[in-house]
Amino acid sequence: MSNLDLRPAPGVCGGTGRTGPVRDVQPGKQVPLGESTVVRRLLPNLGRRMVGAWCFVDHYGPDDIVAEPGMQVPPHPHMGLQTVTWLHQGEVLHRDSLGSLQTVRPRELGLMTSGRAIAHSEESPHGHGPFLHGAQLWVALPDAHRDTAPAFAHHTDLPVIEGGGLSATVLLGQLDGATSPGATYSPLVGADLTLAAGTDTRLPVDPDFEYAALTISGESEVDGVRLGPGALLYLGCGRGELPLRADSDSSLLLLGGEPFEERIVMWWNFVGRSHADIEEARSAWMSGSRFGEVTGYDGDRLAAPALPPGALKPRGRER
């Protein structure tokens, strides 16, 4: 998924070290995406720009798209990151400059590693279902792997942890002994948690990871904090287990990882380490080089917005 902001602010991230357990609820921001989709952007936000290597989180829906085209995101570039497509309802048709053509459906992992350069488009396919509901997430690649070869993977058989009214599907990384088949390049975890009505349980987590929880549907309590749909709760580090309870059926995403110590610049759809990295990537996209071509999308590709007047500088998350 693309950041379609025509005046994207430079994201300066990383280098914060570890914090103890906290309970910081952070609201999302409504952002239009493509022709007919509005998303809640939860990362980056005014209070926090990363959770582990997770650097971008959009939550969308549930949207009634019976009479709408649904998601329509034209071809656009990515560099220095992975994109994670995760659906609860609907379908997303992925095309990329490697020649991939794949429909991603609910509870299936669409994982694209941009590495040095890739381009892709995303759209609701013809004859799509009545609703669209899901999340799009980005993972920053560490410096040692940011020039890795681009790749796309589609995983339909993901590990599931069950017990005590909790069902946890592991998207990426490892949770409570279950490991996702998705490729990762830093210690992290992403899991979809479904809580049945009456659930009151504790989920084992890694105390060295920082965590955040995003409510997808219903209401639940995470470490004693009640969360409604579209809210992000930052939890910090230092927990060995995470208390979870729900009075009614609900679901949430749990994101975590070792605090990302590298300093990065995130601008538009690029993650780099310097202004020169971003400037070179933008120039390559605008000139039609490096990122390849997405074929089959009915429409023009996205043009990159203008760079800000000052140089983009990598800094830590401190303000």
Automatic annotation (TrEMBL):
Stored Gene3D superfamilies: Jelly Rolls
Coiled coil: none
Family: Belongs to the pirin family.
Domain Pirin N-terminal span(s) in chain numbering: 43-139
Compositionally biased spans, kind Low complexity: 302-313
Domain Pirin C-terminal, residue spans: 191-290
Pfam families registered for this protein in UniProt: Pirin (PF02678), Pirin_C (PF05726)
Protein name as catalogued: Pirin family protein
Location of region: Disordered: 1-29, 300-319
The species this protein was found in: Streptomyces kronopolitis
